[in-house]
Amino acid sequence: MSNTLESPATTPTDERRTAQSRPRALIDKLRVDPLHTVITVAVDVLNATLAVAVGVLWRTGSLTELGWLPWAFVPLVVAILGAQSLYRRSLRRNFLDEIGPVETSIAFAVLALLTIMLVADTDYRPSAIMIRIWICAAILLALGRLGRVLVQRRLRSKYHSAAPTLIVGGGPIGHQLVARMRQFPEYGLEPIGLVDVPPVSPVDVTAPGHIDIPYLGTPREFEMIARTTGAEEVIIAFSAVQHEQLVAATRSAQKLGMRVWVVPRLFDLVGNKTRVEHIGGLPLMVMPHIDPKGWQFHLKGAMDRTLTAVGLLLLSPVFLLLMLLVRLSSPGPIFFAQERIGRDGIPFDCLKFRSMRPPRASDAEFVRTEGDAPGGVEGVDRRTKIGKIMRQTSLDELPQLLNVLKGDMSLVGPRPERPEYVDLFAMQIRRYGERHRVKAGVTGWAQAHGLRGQTSIADRAEWDNYYIENWSLWLDVRILFLTVLAVLKRAED
Q: Is the Cβ–Cβ distance between 226 and 234 less than 8 Å?
């Protein structure tokens, strides 16, 4: 790790930009907020115009027969989308997050224009044309948003179209931010250096997943650092820097046109529903509390059992076929029951289809890598042919639906762990024990983001606690949808 900012001619950002090709330079321009907004608005205008055209032609066969009034839908829906902040650049565009507000905006625009048409007393029946426009817009604008999300993620992930980002604060949180930005390039942030008062907190360079990042200087030098590196974003993390210096660095960043992000104190408690109120000029964060033992989770449990009963009925042919194949694959029981830890630390037997043959004396003992979660293929690969297929498609976990019916598990929640690992992880991993506030799940927020098998347990705990703090029925629906998409892909061996 370098200790100083050497010179404008040798900065990491300058070397990176020199190596970029012309297509990459063109892609970099898409990071600029005004152009980003213009492209988004243009896509919505195009799709809204196409929706009106299809709707009018569907009703009359002519684009001009109904006059100009139906075409007022285009500026109206764009204005409502803008009012809902759907043209504001965000870190990670998620189609499931956008679809609700987009469809709501379309409905409001249709109803508003229908009201105007009724007041204007048109010569034609306005409801017939507006229903057609509504249907077309609901489909076309949604497809446009989906295409935009996919293209943006593709540019960020494959072509590294990310904004150069400075992190103020060289402690563990600053390094965690660097790791997350590198792990998920679709956020569109590329960490280029740390800014903090020396000495920057030491980090174990031999730790798994460590990512080296240069130390560029102190917050007093922030403006010079920002100009030299060409940074476009800055994240204010935790630092021993005095409040006045952080405010001065933030003002410098805003003067340079940079976007400023701040990691709040008590960040573990800050969720999606947190809002800001003011007493005079002092901002206060109001943090709504999700009670895992409240009525919401009782409703969640009832819905889990209802959906599971319906799902088992629909999947019964597959379930019975897998039972037969497991029985024929090798000697042993059909189901494999393993003790796991559930809500409030209570153990239960987690069911799976048996996917492995019985062990042999010649099988080598498995040694777990420190920092990784147990799971996947541990030691000698003893999977049967049908077991390998079930593991790759997650079909071996279907019997856990019986755990849901019994009340030991939920459809969505943190994945349960074996007792021998729980105590170990609780001592090693920050906030690990808090994931046991709710029932374990067949799938979870961490698994929906690829944290399966022998992946970092610290990362899993981070995602699981996020899920609990931000729980909603809609979040459960999103996770189930993402799980279906993940199951359609072959898992790693």
A: yes
Question: What mean pLDDT is predicted for residues 367-390?
Answer: 66
Residue finishing a domain among 101, 128, 158: 158
- Residue pair 438/292 in contact (Cβ under 8 Å)? The answer is yes
Q: What is the model's pLDDT at position 211?
A: 63
Please give the pLDDT value at position 17.
44
Contact 159, 27 (CB under 8 A): yes
User: What one-letter code names the amino acid at 188?
Assistant: G
Q: Which of 472, 324, 448, 468 is nearest to 394 (CA)?
A: 448
Please give the structure tokens belonging to residue 282: 């002092």
The alpha carbon of 351 is separated from its chain's Cα centroid by a whole number of angstroms, namely: 28
pLDDT confidence of residue 122: 78
Residues 389 and 433 in one domain: yes
pLDDT of residue 200: 59
Task: Spell out the residues 6+ positions from residue 436 whose beta carbon is closer than 8 angstroms to its own.
Answer: 341, 342, 343, 344, 345, 414
pLDDT exceeds 70 at position 21: no
Copy the structure tokens of residue 7: 């010179």
| 73 pLDDT higher than 50 | yes
Which pair of structure tokens corresponds to residue 154? 């593709």
**181 and 139 in a common domain:** no
Give a yes or no: residue 58 inside a domain.
Answer: yes
pTM here? 0.67
* CA neighbor of 451 nearest in space, from 472, 418, 479, 422: 479
The token pair that represents 297 in the structure block: 């989770």
Residue 131 burial (10 A CB sphere; 0-12, 13-18, 19+): middle
Query: Do 157 and 186 form a contact (C-beta atoms < 8 A)?
Result: yes
- pLDDT per position as a tens digit, 210-265: 567 888 888 889 999 999 998 889 999 988 888 888 888 999 998 888 889 998 88
Of the residues 97, 126, 158, the one at which a domain ends: 158
Residue 398 lies in a domain: yes
CA separation for the pair 399, 431 (Å, rounded): 29
Which of 116-125, 254-263, 454-463 holds the top average pLDDT? 254-263
Q: Which residue has the higher pLDDT, 364 or 152?
A: 152
Could you tell me if 319 and 347 lie in one domain?
yes
For residues 457 and 315, membership in a common domain is answered with yes
What average pLDDT does range 60-76 have in this prediction? 83
280: tokens are: 């005079």
In sequence order, what are the beta bridge partners of 465?
Answer: none
Are 111 and 132 in the same domain?
yes
Structural domain of 42:
32-158
Handedness of CA 368, 369, 373, 377 (dihedral sign): negative
Residue 284 has φ and ψ, to the nearest 5°, of: -125, 130
> Which residues are within 8 A (CB) of 228 and not within 5 positions of it... i.e. 6 or more apart?
5, 8, 11
Report the number of distinct structural domains present in the chain.
3
